[in-house]
């Protein structure tokens, strides 16, 4: 089955907007070329992208920005990049992030809630789709998580990305509500 990338990102951004509004003001934006598609399981792909975006929101302090972008690769595959300007991850932790229950800083992690399963699910899903997860991060600057898919899994919209939708949630959560 072919899954439309645009509507998938739209849905994830909508959920993330609610999530970030409950926590703190964060700016979210996304872009995807119209017509881009990935061959695979929609529920699994949604869960992978949603996990990355939930992390980005969770590990980005107030005022930070998060972006999601889809692009076709020169070799013919495709890549979804979830980028945040959050707390970042020290180099030595990166290889272990996709282990089940692995969390970087347990004292801090305790008050951000979560079990340490998200990235193990993301890795599992992307591998089932013949792709890979690439993680790049700098402590204090932010992180980029890339889902890479091979050429046979991707079709449509080889051109440059166009803005999909901007989601702003900069207003402060209403304390009186
Ligand atoms: P869960 O996803 O099960 O709710 P979790 O978010 O702690 O819990 P993972 O998504 O697997 O678990 O992430 C593992 C750890 O990697 C996190 O606890 C956090 O320390 C670190 N991490 C993940 N994403 C980011 C990010 N965008 N910025 C900084 N640290 C991150
Ligand atoms: Mg997580």
From TrEMBL:
It comes from the Bacteria. Residues 1-153 form the Histidine kinase domain. Residues 135-177 are annotated as: Disordered. It is found in: Cell inner membrane. Member of the two-component regulatory system PhoR/PhoB involved in the phosphate regulon genes expression. PhoR may function as a membrane-associated protein kinase that phosphorylates PhoB in response to environmental signals. This is Phosphate regulon sensor protein PhoR. The gene is phoR. The chain holds residues 282 to 458 of 471 of the full protein.
